[in-house]
Specification:
2 helices
């Protein structure tokens, strides 16, 4: 059962979640990067480079989702995204679709920093 849950978590984590990255620094002031998954509150990865932070958060996503499945907590759906390019700048537009039980005026559109994820 646990192996099936892990496989399900890996499959679900492979969906197109929005990962936001930011430069940061360690407690001793060394440069580092932090990666967040917008839909998975508290799911964070870190690394010395942006790529390491993304790889770390992808592993954390699997553990996070596996824990949700273990406690029968619904796994959040990935947000819808679209890309708008103007000149040399690309902007990823992240749209959170309000659940059916939420008032439609609560729909939120967020703008993520450009860059490949």
């Amino acid at each position: 059962m646990e192996m099936n849950r892990r496989i399900d978590a890996e499959r679900l984590a492979a969906r197109h979640y929005v990962i936001e990255t930011r430069p940061s620094e360690t407690t001793d002031g060394a440069p580092s990067w932090v990666a967040y998954v917008m839909e998975l509150d508290g799911c964070i990865g870190q690394g010395q480079t942006r790529e390491e932070a993304i790889a770390d958060v992808r592993l954390a996503m699997i553990d996070y989702i596996e824990t949700l499945l273990a406690f029968d907590i619904p796994v959040p759906e990935p947000q819808r995204t679209r890309t708008a390019t103007t000149g040399a700048k690309t902007t990823v537009i992240v749209e959170r679709i309000a659940p059916a039980d939420e008032h439609p005026t609560n729909r939120v559109v967020q703008f993520a920093q450009s860059g490949a994820v």
